Description:
By secondary structure, this protein is of the alpha/beta class. The protein has helices spanning 25-34, 57-64, 84-90, 105-114, 160-173, 191-197, 206-209, 214-225, and strands at residues 12-15, 39-45, 70-76, 94-98, 118-123, 141-145, 179-183, 201-204. It is built from eight helices and eight strands, in the order βαβαβαβαββαβαβαα. It has an eight-stranded parallel β-sheet with strand order 1-8-7-6-5-4-3-2. It is globular. The model has no long low-confidence stretch (mean pLDDT 96). D-xylitol-5-phosphate binds at residues 16, 18-19, 41, 43, 74, 147, 149-154, 183-186, 203-207.
Amino acid sequence: MQSIYVLMDSKLIAPSMLAADFANLQQDIEMVNQSEADWFHLDVMDGVFVPNISFGMPVIKAMAKHTKKTLDVHLMIVDPDRYINTFSDLGADVLTVHYEACTHLHRTIQAIKHAGMKAGVALNPHTPINVLEAIVHDIDLVCIMSVNPGFGGQSFIENTYNKVSELKNLIDQKEAKTLIEIDGGVNSDNAKKLVDAGADVLVAGSFVFKSENPTTTIKELKQVIA
Ligand code: DX5
Ligand code: ZN
């Protein structure tokens, strides 16, 4: 585990393990450990909030025995409050919930922090940035979904650049320290433009794991955004 703020000056790459080989998870975890990647991005889907089910607690517990970098857990589940302490116990460093899944977002964020984790809030592509106006200074990370959540390998939504700029302005205006993360369809063609617009953390699943040499792909992504 490492503090997310230690690396705030550099831009981060978080490979999404959703695109890893689930039959050889340890091998793919070691690849990320030894690569220039900064975080592990873990996508938890419940089949209700999103039309897909990924992996849950037992798998994350097994993965956490091998991961040597920040665990960035993205919950695509309804009523995430039920599991905040569970994910803390599993070793999550950053716990991201969806704005659209939280009735009392402020309470949820406080509970995540109280459990010792950094608090993230994800916004679906249709959700405007301004819904975070009253709360952005309380959030450690905002994850802008650049695809509709639920599946890896989808195409990047171009309007994301506008949302990143708008969020960056809001964060500056509020003098907040919130990190901006982009999730979905990230590749070497859009990475630089996203960072230029204000992104701090880029999640990349398929682009990394479906490439011929994932270690080199991560290195190249880091170079593009350096
Ligand atoms: C989508 C997930 C993403 C996904 C990204 O619901 O939140 O993290 O794994 O995968 P790619 O990079 O393949 O779009
Ligand atoms: Zn994700």
